[in-house]
Design a protein that fits this description.
It comes from Streptomyces luteireticuli. It contains 12 helices and 18 strands. The protein has 354 residues and is of the alpha/beta class. The chain has 2 domains: 122 residues, NAD(P)-binding Rossmann-like Domain (Rossmann fold); 185 residues, Dihydrodipicolinate Reductase, domain 2, CATH 3.30.360.10. The structure holds NADP nicotinamide-adenine-dinucleotide phosphate. The site of NADP nicotinamide-adenine-dinucleotide phosphate has 31 residues, from helix 1 and helix 11.
């Protein structure tokens, strides 16, 4: 039997993975606006949070055969959904959907699914860096340089002290796989961790290198950018240098199979207790004007990602000042880019534009 999600405009917002690291942040933010239903494999772990915010919590194991049914007003995926169960159920039931977990290939698969089952509700694929915040800020800056971006460059400073859940390592564990980017209007394949260089991000001179993130696929489509590049570095340049040195040995290529999975994942996942999320977005307009934004969230990357998901929820529910329309979209196609920075500030995120 299939999972059954049936749209109910008065029902709760269903957050799958809603008591995980990002999910908990989103649950606390979203509980101020809507009734919530949290789902995961072990609902007992989410009980205290559910009690804290007055939410319900139920079991839905996306790896187990038992079907799930609910009548939500919207659903947010904050856990990897390898078989697209949440998306398929949302498409079948006409439920507004937001996802923040998909890497580029999985986002493309979601788009293919929307071709097979055309959505009757909004489907927001908001998996770009920090739940689409990088893309939203790029749209806001593009608006300030005349509405069209020729180039978008995003540089991320990943705080090694920050929290990250077990489910997030899969996104990072693709450093042996080349991916396609658009640069100077042409598409080409690049290798993760190539293009290393130093960028000043919020006063920190940070060594960054390429990483595959979905906004490099969506920004050229949605904003018409000829160039979209995202690079990432750790808060300690020696750690980035060590990762780049490991890449030079070819480890991420020859070690990319199952045999080295646990070694790779232990290298990529050693979370801390909490840090600051920091990202720089540079946009060059078609008119040659440039704008830079530095986005800082002292509550860390899980909170910033949750803010991205929250803004996504408002959008698919038609609560961000524009009517929500059925169909797939990306965060950077935001109807009111002028309001983006204001919405981020309101959520405790600092954005400095120069
Ligand atoms: N777009 C971005 O910039 C961005 C940033 C950060 C994170 N993310 C993504 O957000 C996701 C969550 O990351 P996280 O750090 O919050 O991970 P996490 O702390 O491990 O949280 C995962 C949550 O999902 C539940 N879960 C795990 N496996 C499940 C399954 N098979 N079926 C149903 N529920 C399951 C877990 O609870 P149970 O163990 O009880 O099932 C937990 O509540 C990851 O996919 C990550 O890549 C995206």
């Amino acid at each position: 039997m299939d999972d059954d999600l049936h749209h109910d405009p008065d029902g709760p917002v269903l957050i799958v993975g809603g008591y995980g690291t990002v999910g908990t942040e989103l649950t606390r933010l979203a509980a101020r606006s809507w009734p919530l239903l949290l789902a995961g494999r072990t609902p007992g772990r989410g009980r205290a949070l559910a009690n804290e915010v007055g939410a319900a919590v139920r079991r839905w194991d996306l790896d187990a055969p038992e079907p799930f049914s609910a009548k939500p007003r919207a659903v947010v995926g904050t856990v990897n959904d390898p078989d697209d169960r949440v998306l398929r159920a949302a498409l079948r039931g006409g439920v507004p959907y937001v996802d923040i977990t998909r890497w580029t290939a999985r986002l493309q698969r979601a788009l293919a699914l929307t071709a097979v089952t055309p959505p009757t509700a909004p489907v927001l694929l908001s998996s770009g860096w920090m739940g689409g915040i990088g893309s939203l800020v790029a749209a806001a800056l593009a608006d300030r340089v005349g509405g069209a971006a020729a180039a978008v460059e995003i540089a991320v400073r990943y705080d090694l002290r920050d929290r990250a859940g077990a489910d997030s390592v899969e996104f990072m564990d693709r450093l042996g796989l080349d991916y396609e980017v658009t640069e100077g209007g042409r598409r080409r394949l690049v290798t993760p961790l190539s293009g290393a260089g130093r960028v000043t991000i919020g006063g920190h001179r940070t060594m960054v290198a390429r990483i595959d993130t979905p906004e490099q696929f969506t920004l050229p489509l949605a904003l018409g950018a000829d160039t979209a590049v995202t690079r990432i570095g750790f808060s300690t340049n020696t750690s980035t240098a060590a990762l780049l040195a490991l890449k030079q040995t070819g480890f991420f290529r020859w070690g990319r199979g199952d045999r080295f999975r646990s070694l790779r994942r232990s290298l990529l996942h050693s979370p801390g207790e909490g840090g600051t999320a920091l990202m720089r977005v540079d946009v060059r307009g078609r008119n040659g004007q440039r704008r830079t934004a530095v986005v800082r969230d002292p509550a860390g990357q899980a909170h910033l990602t949750a803010v991205g998901a929250l803004l996504g929820l408002r959008r698919v529910l038609g609560e961000d000042g524009a009517a929500a329309s059925a169909g797939a979209s990306f965060p950077e196609s935001v109807p009111e880019p002028r309001l983006v920075l204001w919405a981020l500030e309101e959520a405790g995120v600092t954005v400095t534009v120069s």
